[in-house]
Specification:
Layout (H helix, E strand, L loop, with lengths): L36 H15 L5 H23 L5 H31 L2 H11 L3 H19 L10
Helix pairs in contact: 1-2, 1-3, 2-3, 4-5
Length: about 160
Amino acid sequence: MAQYPPPGQYPPPPGQYPPPPDQGQPNYWQESPKRKGMAITALVLGILGFLTCWTLIGGYLFGFFALIFGIIALVKIRSGSAGGTGMAATGLILGVLSLVAAIVISIVGWHFFVDSGGKDYLDCVQKAGNDQTKLNECRDKWQHSIEQSYSVTVTPRPTR
């Protein structure tokens, strides 16, 4: 019958091992984790801005903050006090894209509004004041303008 040494008393295998970290020496083979909070924030805001750029407020608000947090994160990464380069860069790019998309949608929407007679409608409503008859005339003129410009028939909502 073979005899085995008691557990915990096996001879160590050959080779050199680093000293245990408890001996007061720095642990050089482990890198301390770098903080990535700013980079994650930039990425999340960039994604939200890109997904909501059509709402304009979402595109402007989230895009602007994604841009700011992305720049701050990249500055901290460059100084060596933070990590998450890919997340910060992606958040920054998505923030810029959402801002550009929101600006383009705003410009196109404004031109569509003006071309459809919306600006004239607003001027008419302002001149009409609280007179309901004049307000109805303004609405009818704008509706007729849209129907003529775009060859569509605007149907009113059903009333109960």
